[in-house]
């Protein structure tokens, strides 16, 4: 079994929608909870900016 090349996906089941317990402070000094959606958006943006390393001989 090759785990690295597996195409199986594992479903994620969330039993409740809670805040992650973290927050950021906005420009007006207000505390803004960090949501899972914010983290997923940031991960998607990072994936789009990913640059593959040059191949080495």
Give me the secondary-structure topology:
Blueprint: E1 23-25, E2 31-33, H1 36-49
InterPro entries: PA1571-like
Protein name: Multifunctional fatty acid oxidation complex subunit alpha
Specify Rg, calculated over alpha carbons.
Answer: 18 Å
Strand content: 5-15%
Derived structural class: alpha+beta
List the secondary-structure elements in sequence, H or E: EEH
Q: What separation lies between the terminal Cα atoms?
A: 30 Å
| Average pLDDT level | 80
Walk me through the structure.
This is Multifunctional fatty acid oxidation complex subunit alpha. InterPro entries: PA1571-like. The two termini are 30 Å apart. With 57 residues, the protein is of the alpha+beta class. Helix content is 25%, strand content 11%. The chain has a domain at 18-50. The protein has one helix at residues 36-49, and strands spanning 23-25, 31-33. The chain has a two-stranded antiparallel sheet. The chain is flat, with a radius of gyration of 18 Å. It is built from one helix and two strands, in the order E-E-H. The mean pLDDT is 80.
Protein traits:
57 residues; flat; Multifunctional fatty acid oxidation complex subunit alpha; PA1571-like
In short:
With 57 residues, the chain is α+β, with helices and mostly antiparallel strands. The chain contains one helix and two strands, in the order ββα. It has a domain of 33 residues.
């Amino acid at each position: 079994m090759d785990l690295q090349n597996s195409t199986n996906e594992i479903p994620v089941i969330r039993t409740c929608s809670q805040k992650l317990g973290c927050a950021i402070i906005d420009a007006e000094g207000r505390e803004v909870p960090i949501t899972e959606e914010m983290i997923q958006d940031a991960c998607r943006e990072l994936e789009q900016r990913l640059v593959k390393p040059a191949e080495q001989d």
